[in-house]
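Objective 1b. Sequence-to-structure analysis of KIB1-4 beta-propeller domain-containing protein.
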Amino acid sequence: MDIFWSHASTKWRDWAKLCTDLVEVISNRLLASHIADYIRFRATCKPWRDFIDDPHTCDGMDIRFRPRNWISLAHCASPSRRTLLNVNTGACTNIDFPDLDTHHHLGTADGLLVLGHKLNNTICLIHPFTRKIIEFPSRCAPSTSNRRLRVNLSAIHGAGIDDSTVPSTLVISLRNGLHQVICAKPSDELWAFVQAIDQRSASSLEKVRGHSPVTFGGRCYFTTSDAIIMTLDLSPGVEPRMVCLLDNDPRLVNNHETIIYSYLVRSHDRMLMV
């Protein structure tokens, strides 16, 4: 069989000279779904890298580059390795984190790994794909309800990020029984205890599920044992406060016969209580 190659099919294309607007469109679409694909796209061609931002040099908490659709699984052969799973696409990758030799892996916050130093109790976030590290304080401001000034790593049960501040705020919930939520920005010297805005919020704050923080739409949300949704008020000039956002459904309130466990999850552009 004779094969005829057309001139058009063998014509060389200079992809390095792809127009700037098209490079930006492609990169934005990749970034919207898959930060790892965005990083690979930048690595393909130097002129393309000149047109789009480098996540390695940007703020580690930059909302544009967070791997928010990724979760970390600890079931790996090596203590320093984590399996990352994209819950939207099913993509999976194994990554070694040398920092886990000196840190405990405490969870994730909007795709960023939450690590606690084994010796000095400092908290940091690490971006799994850029390895960018964001440091946080190891000490808490004095609290009338609890005089412990150091962060107890073993008590950390959940984490989220609130983007209503600049820079963004890391929010950590402590295990049930401690009834505490603390927060800090990378530039802060101390963790602040989140207070209740009123008596109703105070009652609900004591029932916050430690596992429940979820970041959605730039805010951090919690759920309580009686299915109330709460969020943070991080207005400048006042102490961080927890406010009730959505009342509970009377059918979901705990009673002597049932125990309700509620979770907040992202579902595309919506947040669901499960």
